[in-house]
Description:
The chain is mainly alpha-helical.
Amino acid sequence: QFNHRFLGTATAVGAVSLIAIGLSPARASLLTPQARNGLYAVGLASVGQMTLGITTLLNYVPLSLAATHQLGSIVVLTSGVYLAHSLRYARPAIVRAARNLPNQAKPIIKPITNPVVSGAQ
């Protein structure tokens, strides 16, 4: 039980931190609207899942809340997959922004050249 509570809390805190870092003014302009929505979805789903878990325990685990908590895990997983997928399309904007930096501040970022994906855009 301790592991479940610890990992749930760590997931919620990590998701909220991801939102704070990802949507900071310096980085928010690099994200696509889908990536922004993905960040919000992961944060909201994770915090909602933690809240639902705490509520389930405080009410002595009624079956309806326990089942809803199980369904919430699917929502967290799905929002995480959506975020990972949407960040794939934010990467070209990050590469373009890195090319516009002054020479001394340029990070080493190499664009991915995949003919299948490049042809679809």
